[in-house]
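User: I'm putting together a teaching handout on how sequence relates to shape, and I'd like one worked example. Could you take Phytocyanin domain-containing protein from Rubroshorea leprosula, show the sequence you're using, and then write out its predicted structure as C-alpha cells right after it?

Assistant: Happy to. First the sequence, then the C-alpha cells directly below it.
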Amino acid sequence: MYFICPTAGHCTSGMKLAVSVVSASGTVYAVNYVVGDSSGWTQGVNYATWAQGKTFNVGDTLLFTYGSTHAVDEVSESDYNNCVVGNALSTHNDGNTTITLSKAGSMYFICPTAGHCTGGMKLAVSVVSASGTPSPSSPTPPPPHRHTPSGSTTPPSTTPSPTKYYYICQLSFLNSD
C-alpha cells in the first residue's frame, strides 16, 4: 500500500509512505468443539471420557447444546468437585451456548439442575496457551488482528478452521532524491 500527502507539493518533497504487511506465523487453527458430540449436553454422557485425548487451546470454543431442563454454569474447581450450585462464575440457559476458551488454565462446567451434576453432567477442561503449557495465573492477550469468515452456515465441529494472524508491519519511507 502506498500513502501520499494530498497537499500540493508535499508528495514531490518526500511526504509519501509505502506499507507492507506480511504474515509472521501463517495459518493458526481454532477448533469448535460440540460438547458431547451428537449427544450434546445431557444426562447419561461421560464428559470426562469425551474430553479425554482432546487438546483445548486458547481461542477454541465449546458449544453446549441442550434442552430446557438443563443449563450451563461455569464454576470454581471446588464447586465442580462438590457439585455446588448457586455460586456460578457465569450461567447460560439459552440451549445453544458457545464458550470461547480465552485464557490458559482449567475451566469447570456443571448443569445446575438438581441431581444432574452429581449424576455426571459436568465437564472440566484444561486449556493450553500457544506454547502448549497451561498458565492459569496469566491470561493470554488476544492476537492483534483476527479474521474469521462470517455468514457461514456450516454447523460447529471439531474440525480446525483456519484463522490468519498478522504480526509484522514493515514501513518504508520513499524519498524523491
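A couple of points you could highlight for students: The longest strand covers residues 16-22. Residues 32-159 form a domain with the Immunoglobulin-like fold (CATH 2.60.40.420).
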